[in-house]
Write a structure and sequence with these properties.
Number of helices: 1
Largest sheet: 3 strands, antiparallel
Order of helices and strands: EEEHEE
Helix content: 25-40%
Distance between the termini: 22 Å
Strand order of the largest sheet: 1-2-3
Number of domains: 1
Number of strands: 5
Strand content: 35-45%
Structural class: alpha+beta
Protein name: DUF2188 domain-containing protein
Radius of gyration: 12 Å
Amino acid sequence: MSKDADRWKIRYEDKEYPYDTHTAALIAAIKAAKGAVSHGYAAEVLVQGIDGKWRTEWSDGDQR
């Protein structure tokens, strides 16, 4: 997830999806990541901070 002007966007399967709020983007990103996990893939949700650094917001951990 990253901030783009006044919106948040997530990138999933090489496509970008815009959301009006951080919360809406985070919920969608976690839902997509959980879907990937359910199909046997490793997944995590990274959020880019205002400092430009990425942090893990959610990871599959032991969910596989």
